[in-house]
Amino acid sequence: MADQAGAQNAAQSPRTAVVIGGNRIPFARAGGAYAYSSNKDMLIAALDGLVARFGLQGERIGEVAAGAVLKHSRDFNLTREAVLGSALSPQTPAYDLQQACATGLETVVGLSNKIKLGQIESGIAGGVDSASDAPIAVSEGLRRVLLDLSRAKTTPQKLRILSTLRPKDLSPNAPGTGEPRTGLSMGEHQAITTAAWKITREAQDELAYRSHHNLAAAYERGFFSDLMTPYRGLTRDANLRADTSLEKLATLKPVFGKGLDTPATMTAGNSTPLTDGAALVLLGSEEYATANNLPMLANIVDAEAAAVDFVHGEEGLLMGGVHAVPRLLERNGLTLDDFDFFEIHEAFAGTVLSALAAWEDEDYCKRVLGLDGALGSIDRSRLNVHGSSLAAGHPFAATGGRIVASLAKTLSEQGGRGLISICAAGGQGVVAILEARN
Amino acid sequence: MADTYLDLVNTPLPARIAKALGLPRPSVLRRYTPGEVLASKPVLVAGSGPGADALAEELLGWDIEVRRHVLPGEKLSAAVVVLDGATRPTDLAAPMLELGQAVRMLVAGGRVVGVFRSSTDASGPTEAAARQGIDGAIRSVAHELRGGATANGIILRGDTTTTDPTTLGALRFLLSGKSAYVDGQFIEVRSAPAESIADLAASTTAAGEGVPDQPLARKTAVVTGAARGIGAKIAEVLARDGARIVAVDVPAAGEQLVEVANRVGGTALQLDITEPDAGARILDHVGRRFGRLDILVHNAGITRDKLLANMDASRWDSVIAVNIASQLRMNEQVLASPVFSDTGRIVSLASTSGIAGNRGQSNYAASKAGVIGMVRAQAAVFDGAGRTINAVAPGFIETDMTAKIPALTRQVARRLSSLQQGGLPVDVAETIAFLASDAAAGVNGQVVRVCGQNLVGA
C-alpha cells in the first residue's frame, strides 16, 4: 500500500532527480585547521574536489546553489564567486541561498525540483560555513557616524558628526547564535524543549556516544573515501572522538539550561560545537547521469518545510522538522515504518530525542500535529548510522550536503528508503525523502 | 629541487672555470616539446646490408636528411648504426669506426642508436660474440659522449626487421627529446601482432605531417601514486599524449590529487592500493566511466630506509605491501577483468636500487627487484598476445624525495652518471608514455632504466 503510494507520487513527477555523488572537506573545529580559511576558500575546495571526483573540468553545470549562514557582506555572490574560482566552466550559473541550518538541504530540494521540471540537467547543491572567519560588524553607533560622515560636505559638519561618537560605539558586534526575537541562544532554547520532553542526561550522552562510534566506524571501513577530500592537512572531522565513552561524556559539566528549575543536562559533549567546513552534492537527471556514465546513488523523492511559533512559547525552537515530517509522509502515503534509514540532524542530542519523543506521544501528535494518533517510533539502529553532527561537527550550511551525500551512498549500498530531517533557526525545519534506485 | 650547479656551469665564465679545473660539465638536456623536430641536421645511417639500406630509406620518409657516410665538416643530429647482419666480431670494425667519426660531428643533445640482433637468438658462439660485442661498444660510446648526447640500442628479437613498426617506434623514441635521460640502455623489440598495433601505422610511419600529437588518444590510463612527484608528472604527460587519466592515490593525499586531476582533466580516485579490493574498485570506476582500461601505471611506492641490521618488521612489511604485493594483487584482478583491453599496457616503476641494490634499502630493493621479476614473468605469459608489461627503473631523479638527501651526497649522486646530472620526473614519464603507446606494441618484459647511464648497477 505504502509502496504503491510512493510510486504514485514519483509518477506524478515529470522526471526523476538523482544524487550522483558528493564531496565535502573534513569539518574542523572553529579556530582549528581552517581558522584562516574563508567561506569562499572552503567552497572552492569542496567544488574542486567534486569536479575531480567526477571529471567535470570545464563543464557547464546547469546550476550551482549553495549558501552560508555566517556571511560577510562582501560574499553577497559567494557561490558564483566560488564557481569562478573552481575548475568548472565559468559559464556555470550559481545562486546563494540562506535558510539557516537548513540551507544545504534546501539547495538540494530547489535544484532537484528544477531537474524534475526539466529546467536543468545537472546541479551542484550544498553549503559552507566558517565560525572561525566570522564577519564582525561595527557597532550601530559607529556605523551611523561613518555613514553620516560620508554624506557630510564641510569640515565643521564632519567635526560635529565625529563629536557624537561615544567610546562604547568603538566595540564591534560579533555574530551570535541568539534568536533575534527571544534573545535566547539556540542551546538555551533547546534546553527548554529538552526539559519539556523530560530527556535525560544519560539518553543524550548515549546518542552522542553512538554518533562518535558510528562515524569512526564509517571512517574505518573507508565509507568517506569517495565522499570527502582532505583540506589543509585535515583528513578526518576534527571533532570526532573515536575513543569517547559514556563515562567520559558523563564527566562533562552542563552548559545550557542552568537557569531552568529542572536539572541541566546539556553539555559540550551532547551539543554540537561551532565548526568550519563545506559540503556539496552532484545532482542530475537520469538522462544526464546515463549520458555521462555517472553513478546514480539515490532518487530525491520529495521534501517539505515547516515553521513553528517558538516566539510565543507554543513550540520548541528546533521542532520545525517534527511538524514537517508527518505532512511529508502523508503526501507520499508513507509511515515511519516504510523507512530503512533516518538522518535526523544532531544540532543537540536533545533535539533528536525530543523529536523522537514527540512522534511517539499520542496526545502531542493529536493535539499539535493534528494526527489521528502517535506518528510512530524509530528503530535506533536505523538512525544516523554513519554518525551525525555531534561527532562530525556542524558548519551550519554544510550539514545538508553532508547528510544527503552520506544517505544516498548508504541507500546505494544497502537499498531502501531514507528520511532526512534538519532543524533550523527561526523555528524552521526542512525534511526530505531519498530512495534507493532498485 | 633545482640543480644550481648545472645552471651555473652553463653560463660563460663558470663554464670556462669548470673546464680549466676538470670539473663535471653537465649540459642542459634536449627535452621534448610538442611539435619538436626530430633531427634538424642530417642523420647518419652507418652499416651496410639490406637492414641498413631499408632503415635509411625509411628515415628519408620521416623528412630527415640521411647520410650513409660522414661528410667532412657537416654536423649530425644523430647516428644510427645498423649491425643487424653482424655474424663475426670482426664485422663491427668498419661501422663502429664510421660511428667514431660521426660522434665528433654530433650536435649538442645528439643521439647515437645501435640497431642489432639479440645474442640470445644467435646461431652459435661466434655470432653471439659479435652481437654481444655491439652491446659493450654502444655502452662505451654512451660514456664517452658529451653535450647531453646519448647512446642507446634497439635489440631485434627473432626475425624482427629494422623497419618493423615496433623497431621504428623505439627508434623514434630514442631519437626524440622524450628519451633525454635514457642513456646506455637497450630496448628489445619483437614484431607485434597486427591487431595489437591498430593505430601504429598512424603513429610511426608518416613522419612530419602524419605523426599525431596524441599517440594515446581515446585511451584510458590509471596512474597510482598520482598526487605528487613522478606520479603527477606521469599523469600530465599521458594526458598531453591524449589519454583520459584516472589519478589514484591514498585518501590522505586527496587534496593534491584533486589538483592533479583537475590540471589534466581526469578523475581523482582516492584509495589505498594495499586494500584487497583496490583493483576491483579501479576496474569498477574505469568500467563505469570509460568502459575500458588501456593503460595501468603502477607508480605508487614508498621508502622506509634502514640498514638491514636495524630494520624492523613494520618498515620491511609496509614497503613490500605497497611496492610489490599491491601490484601483484591488482594485476591479478585487472587481468581477470573484461574491462582491461586486449591491447592493454602495464608499466611498473622499478628502481636502479632494485637492479644494483642500495645501502639502507634492502626492503626497497627487494620490492623493486620483485617488480622486475614480476614484469618478466608476466611478459612471458603475455608473449605476443597483444598485451604488454614493462618496467621503468629511474635512477637519480630530482623529486621531493631526493631533495631530502644531504646536500653533498646529493651533489655526488647527481654527477655519478654519464649525463652528470639528475633526471627530471618528466624523463621517467616520457619513457612510460612511450611504453604505454601503440608504438611500443612489440616491447614486452623490458626494464628500461631512466638514469642517465648511472654508474650504479650499470
From TrEMBL, chain A:
<dbReference type="Pfam" id="PF02803">
    <property type="entry name" value="Thiolase_C"/>
</dbReference>
<feature type="active site" description="Proton acceptor">
    <location>
        <position position="394"/>
    </location>
</feature>
<dbReference type="InterPro" id="IPR050521">
    <property type="entry name" value="3-ketoacyl-CoA_Thiolase"/>
</dbReference>
<feature type="domain" description="Thiolase C-terminal">
    <location>
        <begin position="296"/>
        <end position="435"/>
    </location>
</feature>
<protein>
    <submittedName>
        <fullName>Acetyl-CoA C-acetyltransferase</fullName>
        <ecNumber>2.3.1.9</ecNumber>
    </submittedName>
</protein>
<dbReference type="InterPro" id="IPR002155">
    <property type="entry name" value="Thiolase"/>
</dbReference>
<dbReference type="InterPro" id="IPR020617">
    <property type="entry name" value="Thiolase_C"/>
</dbReference>
<feature type="active site" description="Proton acceptor">
    <location>
        <position position="423"/>
    </location>
</feature>
<dbReference type="GO" id="GO:0003985">
    <property type="term" value="F:acetyl-CoA C-acetyltransferase activity"/>
</dbReference>
<dbReference type="Pfam" id="PF00108">
    <property type="entry name" value="Thiolase_N"/>
</dbReference>
<dbReference type="InterPro" id="IPR020616">
    <property type="entry name" value="Thiolase_N"/>
</dbReference>
<dbReference type="InterPro" id="IPR016039">
    <property type="entry name" value="Thiolase-like"/>
</dbReference>
<keyword id="KW-0012">Acyltransferase</keyword>
<keyword id="KW-0808">Transferase</keyword>
<feature type="domain" description="Thiolase N-terminal">
    <location>
        <begin position="18"/>
        <end position="287"/>
    </location>
</feature>
<comment type="similarity">
    <text>Belongs to the thiolase-like superfamily. Thiolase family.</text>
</comment>
<feature type="active site" description="Acyl-thioester intermediate">
    <location>
        <position position="101"/>
    </location>
</feature>
<dbReference type="GO" id="GO:0005829">
    <property type="term" value="C:cytosol"/>
</dbReference>
Automatic annotation (TrEMBL), chain B:
<dbReference type="InterPro" id="IPR002347">
    <property type="entry name" value="SDR_fam"/>
</dbReference>
<dbReference type="Pfam" id="PF13561">
    <property type="entry name" value="adh_short_C2"/>
</dbReference>
<dbReference type="InterPro" id="IPR057326">
    <property type="entry name" value="KR_dom"/>
</dbReference>
<dbReference type="GO" id="GO:0016616">
    <property type="term" value="F:oxidoreductase activity, acting on the CH-OH group of donors, NAD or NADP as acceptor"/>
</dbReference>
<dbReference type="InterPro" id="IPR036291">
    <property type="entry name" value="NAD(P)-bd_dom_sf"/>
</dbReference>
<comment type="similarity">
    <text>Belongs to the short-chain dehydrogenases/reductases (SDR) family.</text>
</comment>
<protein>
    <submittedName>
        <fullName>3-oxoacyl-ACP reductase</fullName>
    </submittedName>
</protein>
<feature type="domain" description="Ketoreductase">
    <location>
        <begin position="219"/>
        <end position="395"/>
    </location>
</feature>
<dbReference type="InterPro" id="IPR020904">
    <property type="entry name" value="Sc_DH/Rdtase_CS"/>
</dbReference>
